[in-house]
Each structure stands twice: as structure tokens, then as C-alpha cells.
Amino acid sequence: MRYLKITLLILVCNSCIAISPKEEGSGKPISHDQWTELLQKYIHGNKVDYKGFIQDSVKLNEYLRLLETNHPNQENFTKIEQLAYWINAYNAFTIRIVIRNHPLSSIRDIAGAIPFINSVWDIKFIRIAEETYDLNNIEHGVLRSQFQEPRIHFAINCASVSCPTLRNEAYVADKLEAQLQEQTLLFLKDESKNQIEFDKLELSKIFRWFGGDFEKGENSKEDFIKEQLGIELSDEVKLEYRDYDWSLNE
């Protein structure tokens, strides 16, 4: 564990470069079949078998290497292929940083012993082509800023109990619309995450933290929920947010 933390510190100190998520690389569209194989083996409902991922780390590292050597530049990837790539990358690299520090009680514990790092999501351990990323770069600098797709919040997984369930298959371009829609409905209908009634909403804090992503034009987050679920809500619906459980989802 001590050597791992030293390694992470070196990565942090050696990656103080400007991040440009749109930087073009030499990549080409890739197959995410290896990732699907791993997910089908080690995702059980809303639980992740991190010990299984550790035992199968050779295959995980092969898939991560495929991501690292194929930057999804706009010339070689369609927009939808790029989106699928970055969702998979976020999830797969999240698994990597968890298993490198496993066992632990919460993903948020990882950054505690690293100087100058306040959050695990700020650790720059992801190298894709010639760029170094942290998880925040992928989520905010790429996924949220480049795609304006609110449903990504139900597809990416932060390794915690209150996070949306990690899907047991890779996201792929030819199924992405259906996958995102299914993830959205699964999350909204999960009463451990959200309680939706005609006159009262108890929502995941995802809707508070990223409220603007669900509010387009004159539409509110309540409108987003109504559209997704095909329901009506009171004009005076009471809105509350649930506490977020950061315990590891294993």
C-alpha cells in the first residue's frame, strides 16, 4: 500500500500539464468486448466484485491499454463512438484505482494520504495517447462539456452505494441510445435512490449537484423526470434530496 501511494504521488507530480480533452490522437474505433466480458463476470446487481477484478487484472489491464493507445479523436471516431468510449473509460479506470487500493471502505478514502490532493477524482493516473487525465477531466472536461447528455450521470459509476448501478455490459455506439435510456429508467425507478410521488420528490443528490444538466431552456429537472417516466407531477411538488452513501459498492 505504501508503495502504491508513492506511485500515485509521482503520477500527480509528473502530470501538471494542461489538459485538452479534444486533443487528437492516432486512435481508431475499438471493440469493447473485453470490458463486457469482465463486467458480466464481476457485476452482480448493484454490487461490484472488486476481488474478482483483482484476480482478473491481466484482462482488465489489456482493455485499459486498448483505451490508452486509441484516443477517440473526431477524425476516426463518430460522435456516438466517442461518447461510448469515454463512458467506458470513466468506469474502467474507476475500477482500476479502486482495486489498486483495495480493501477500503470508500473510494473517497484513496486521496487521504496523498499531499495536495483533496479528492480521488483529482488524481492524474490516466494516460490516453499523449494526454494525462484524472476522473474529473473525463466527467466534466469531456463528457459533460462536449456531449451535453444528462443521461451520462446514470451511466458513469463512482464506486459507491448511492451511485447508479454499473451496467454489466460495455456501452457501444449501435446500442448507446437504448442503453442510456434503460440506465436512466433503472435509476429513477430505484426506490433506494429516488422516491417519486405526485406531490413529493426525494431525489438523489445527483440532481442537485448537476441540476443544470437536467434543465434545458424553460424545462426544469422535474420536467426531465416527468418526460422520462411519462408521469404527471403537482405544480407545487415538494423537492428534497437524499443523503448520499459513499460506502464502497461491493
What is the fold's blueprint, element by element?
Blueprint: H1 2-13, H2 33-42, E1 43-44, E2 47-48, H3 50-55, H4 57-68, H5 79-101, E3 126-128, E4 131-133, H6 135-147, H7 176-189, E5 195-196, E6 200-203, H8 206-209, H9 221-229, E7 238-241
Parallel strand pairs: 6-7
Antiparallel strand pairs: 1-2, 3-4, 5-6
Helix pairs in contact: 4-5, 5-6
Total number of helices:
9
User: Major sheet: size, sense and barrel closure?
Assistant: 3 strands, mixed
Structural class, by secondary structure, is mainly alpha
Q: Assess the beta-strand content as a share of residues.
A: 5-15%
The average pLDDT is: 89
- Count of domains: 1
Please state the oligomeric state of the protein chains shown: single chain
Helical content stands at 40-55%
Per the principal axes of the C-alpha atoms, what is the gross shape? globular
SS elements, strand count: 7
Alpha carbon gyration radius: 18 Å
Residue windows where pLDDT falls under 50 for at least 5 positions: 1-26
What order do the helices and strands follow?
A: HHEEHHHEEHHEEHHE
Head-to-tail CA distance between termini? 20 Å
Strand order of the largest sheet: 5-6-7
